[in-house]
Amino acid sequence: MVTRDGIRLDSNLYYPNSGGPWPALLMRQPYGRRLASTLVYAHPHWYASQGYLVVIQDVRGRGSSEGEFDLFAYEVEDGQDCLDWLSQLPQCDGSVAMYGFSYQGMTQLYAAANHHPCLKTICPAMVAWDLYEDWGYENGAFCLQNNLGWALQLAADSAKRRGDGKSFQQLMRLARSYDFTDRQPAIPDRLGELAPDSFYHQWISQPPESDYWHRQSPDQRWQIREKIDIPVLQIGGWFDPHLRGNLRLYAELERCDIKQKMVVGPWGHFPWGSRAGGQNYGESAISGVDQLQLAWFDHFLKGQEPRFNPAKLELFDLGTKQWRFLPDWPGTEQRWFLQCSGLGTTQGSALTTKAPAKLAEEISDVWVHDPWRPVPSLRGHSGYPQGVKERSAIDDRSDVLTYTYEPLQESLTICGVPQIFLTVASDRPSFDVAVSLSQVNNRGEVWAVSHGYCTSVEEQATLAIPLQAICATLAIGDRLRISLAGASFPAYGVNPGTGQKAVFANLVDQQIITLALTTNSTTENYLLLPILPGT
Questions:
Q1: How do residues 54-93 score in pLDDT, each as one tens digit?
Q2: Which CATH architecture has domain 11-130+219-326?
Q3: Rounded Cα gap, residues 198 and 182, in angstroms
Q4: Which of 2, 190, 341, 402 has the fewest other C-beta atoms within 10 Å?
């Protein structure tokens, strides 16, 4: 096809051997159309065999499509042009659905901005609703490992497209062995030379209020929340770095009363199988997304009776290892208080459901962040690879505070977005706080089910930190734990303690930072847990 400004975009088409025309399934992606996101979805051949025309398209400037690739910049116009072209193909009956994850999920949101009459439903998986908040940064902290890895991947693919084997090899080597010891650890010395046009340079330099983020975000520029008027099936993962984008999109669509369904499994960005890090969640965790999408498409494109559960939410419970079907997110919350002891780094402090008594003298748990040996990121949603990992060795470090509850007397199901409220003082102009919410089982193993991160440019700050959404049932005898650290590296860059943004800090300028969590007569540090009623 040719766009309105004369750029040729290339697609592969798959369809049944006889009959037709058929409803169409469209995926627009930047990684080479032959791949077709088979990391997580069935091959297009399977969807075609179910009675569909399947179109996998290289976006502008990727694969063999013409033009210059500019991250998300052309997807609204090109998406509309693609729908115009696709709906007129002789193999198409005029109705189209879109599917795909990550970038391929984003192209669906942009395409939905134009109310195209042929687009009947979209199935975005693992997307950002606000590009700054849901992809580039988390609570002001740059998502270093994920963003840099993606930038190097796209840059290497661009070099391959140009036939520049030398740059391709150097970028691939950099992606697989970068050790964050360049002068500016967040900006590899070779990246500017090998990929001067990478989006990465804008992502580290543009402030959150800049027009750049406004132009790129689906919601901010296009007000898509007011334009999506078709059914939406969303796919997310508890350990996916973009889950907060899916949740934000879900909330916006609820306000618009759009027909929608959201499925969240025990998955990272990929794969969508039974294992996530160190845990095997069983056969029920293996993705059934292809069958679900087929039932969704059959209903909304072919008018068949629905073969999917009508519940708005299908959530995999990490504790029971079973799926839960809910009408909406539960609204019940409980406060759990962090009770300082003064020895939180060596003997641990208490997590309690009872508000601590007002103290005549304040008590502080003090810890020290050392940039020479920053607390490492350990999977979760922000590290790589993603998933869960036993973290008792991390909690044993004396630069990590731990707050642990007594063994549960009855089961407890956390379902939603936990939030933690902390008053933290520092001896430096800036600092970071990494939060882990863990299950401690009766064998003493510590499994973090949710993480959060926040950066502060004040010496003393009251922080409200949302953690990664979760659905997990803790059994009788399990204990709940909160762990606090001054870093989670390399998932996020090391805060230099100078007030400068971590992405621009020189390695040599990183400072030792002393931090204190304090309980006194006027401050409370507490965890706000969303609880499924009846647990």
A1: 999 999 999 999 999 999 999 999 999 999 999 999 999 9
A2: 3-Layer(aba) Sandwich (3.40)
A3: 18
A4: 2
